[in-house]
Design goal:
Layout: H1 3-11, H2 14-21, H3 28-53, H4 69-89, H5 91-95, H6 98-121, H7 125-130, H8 135-157, H9 161-168
Helix pairs in contact: 2-4, 3-4, 3-8, 6-8
Length: about 170
């Protein structure tokens, strides 16, 4: 079986066809809404934590941000589940877009950075007690904003493959 045949078989599955073609609001509209909500929770809370680490809202104890990580991980896994469904509905189209691979790269880097922040910063009793992030932690806060911002922008750009091709001078 070729890759093309495999992707066609993925797109032909019942769930992919349902997401792509069903007139029900619980199909494409629901899945894309879950994707947007998951990203809003993940990127929004991660940016909030990152900005606090960078010195914003100093009256909020850094330790209080620790409680946001479970919600960020729920947003992440909601995005994974909805993203897989959206990918299945248009596997050939998405996997043909270079911008899609940038999006996935930003997501992987963002998730790794999220895990790093959770383990490195929010278990460091010195940083939590002093209510300040050290220089490496602040660097990773900037990276969090960059990675999730990059994932968001690249994700939106996947909806405009013709425009991207024209701007980059590639494709037809």
């Amino acid at each position: 079986m070729t890759i093309q045949q495999f992707l066609e078989s993925v797109e032909a599955t019942g769930i992919a066809t349902w997401v792509r073609e069903s007139p029900s609001y619980f199909a494409y509209v629901f899945v894309t809404s879950c994707h947007a909500i998951g990203l809003a929770v993940l990127a929004g809370l991660n940016t909030t934590v990152a900005l606090r680490m960078l010195g914003a809202a100093k009256s909020l104890p850094l330790a209080s941000m620790r409680g946001l990580f479970p919600a960020m991980w729920v947003g992440f896994w909601l995005n994974v589940a909805s993203g897989v469904l959206l990918l299945m509905a248009n596997a050939k189209g998405m996997l043909a877009l270079p911008i899609f691979y940038f999006k996935i790269s930003f997501i992987v880097l963002g998730a790794l950075n999220l895990r790093y922040l959770q383990k490195r910063v929010f278990t460091n009793e010195t940083m939590l007690a002093t209510n300040t992030a050290d220089s490496p932690a602040r660097r990773n806060a900037w990276l969090a904003i960059f990675f999730w911002g990059g994932a968001l922008v690249c994700g939106r750009l996947t909806a405009y493959p013709g425009l991207i091709s024209r701007l980059l001078g590639i494709g037809s």
